[in-house]
């Protein structure tokens, strides 16, 4: 199948999703992934440009950055590349786990993005010097809507992992609400995200999490964010929440 045929297939899929969700808020259409097949999307590790499956590192660092800013009134841009090079428990561009990444940060701290820039592959050497930021604690939050909201209100963002589906690459706005069949049968892979807040879509009364993604500022809404169904554990989003205090 050539690139244009893939694009047409994805466009038709987006149209069907819009028809199916006509009474809901979610909308689907052309995105940066519209000319990618499901297999390409999976093999690229969800990274449109750099082909590195480092969502676990980006999600982990984003939570630490935000928690540090909340508690210290200073926003620091910290290094994802340090996790790829130096956290040898995890597998760099081949995936990793938020809990082990947080253990690494607790033990070693993080350098800034400026001092340790992102190159999207594991380098031969870990350049560990001048770490500026560490964390005080990291905990598994109880896996339910109320506990996650309580953590958001008192401490800050929450790390989560979902079974990412093929449909998510066509998301354009509204509340993304995958059904159980999609979460079980249209899985592309595991994907780490950050819950930054929550709300309700007024017109349809759909509850949602405000999600920070790592697919670039042109994805989704508000420069890389999305609204994801809240309170129904869609695609396992409420299964393994983790919180950080920095």
TrEMBL record:
<protein>
    <recommendedName>
        <fullName>Peptidase C1A papain C-terminal domain-containing protein</fullName>
    </recommendedName>
</protein>
<dbReference type="Pfam" id="PF00112">
    <property type="entry name" value="Peptidase_C1"/>
</dbReference>
<dbReference type="InterPro" id="IPR000668">
    <property type="entry name" value="Peptidase_C1A_C"/>
</dbReference>
<dbReference type="Pfam" id="PF08246">
    <property type="entry name" value="Inhibitor_I29"/>
</dbReference>
<dbReference type="InterPro" id="IPR038765">
    <property type="entry name" value="Papain-like_cys_pep_sf"/>
</dbReference>
<feature type="domain" description="Peptidase C1A papain C-terminal">
    <location>
        <begin position="35"/>
        <end position="245"/>
    </location>
</feature>
<dbReference type="InterPro" id="IPR013201">
    <property type="entry name" value="Prot_inhib_I29"/>
</dbReference>
<dbReference type="InterPro" id="IPR013128">
    <property type="entry name" value="Peptidase_C1A"/>
</dbReference>
<dbReference type="GO" id="GO:0006508">
    <property type="term" value="P:proteolysis"/>
</dbReference>
<comment type="similarity">
    <text>Belongs to the peptidase C1 family.</text>
</comment>
<dbReference type="InterPro" id="IPR039417">
    <property type="entry name" value="Peptidase_C1A_papain-like"/>
</dbReference>
<dbReference type="InterPro" id="IPR025660">
    <property type="entry name" value="Pept_his_AS"/>
</dbReference>
<dbReference type="GO" id="GO:0008234">
    <property type="term" value="F:cysteine-type peptidase activity"/>
</dbReference>
């Amino acid at each position: 199948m050539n690139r244009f045929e893939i694009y047409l297939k994805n466009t038709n899929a987006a149209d069907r999703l819009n028809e199916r969700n006509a009474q809901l808020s979610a909308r689907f259409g052309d995105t940066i992934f519209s000319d990618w097949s499901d297999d390409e999307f999976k093999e690229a590790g969800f990274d449109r440009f750099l082909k590195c499956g480092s969502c676990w590192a980006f999600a982990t660092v984003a939570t630490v950055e935000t928690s540090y800013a909340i508690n210290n009134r200073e926003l620091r841009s910290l290094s994802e590349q340090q996790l790829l090079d130096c956290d040898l428990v995890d597998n760099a561009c081949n995936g990793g786990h938020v809990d082990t990444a947080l253990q690494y940060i607790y033990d070693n701290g993080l350098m800034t993005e400026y001092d340790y820039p992102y190159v999207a592959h594991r380098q031969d050497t870990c350049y560990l010097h001048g770490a500026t930021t560490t964390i005080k604690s990291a905990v598994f939050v109880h896996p339910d809507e109320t506990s996650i909201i309580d953590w958001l209100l008192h401490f800050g963002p929450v790390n989560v992992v979902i079974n990412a589906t093929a449909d998510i690459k066509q998301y354009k706005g509204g509340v993304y609400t995958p059904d159980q069949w999609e979460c079980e049968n249209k899985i592309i892979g595991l994907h780490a995200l950050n819950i930054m807040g929550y709300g309700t879509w007024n017109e349809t009364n759909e509850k949602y999490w405000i999600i920070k993604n790592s697919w670039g500022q042109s994805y989704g809404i508000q420069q890389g964010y999305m609204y994801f169904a809240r309170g129904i554990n869609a695609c396992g989003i409420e299964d393994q929440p983790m919180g950080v205090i920095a």
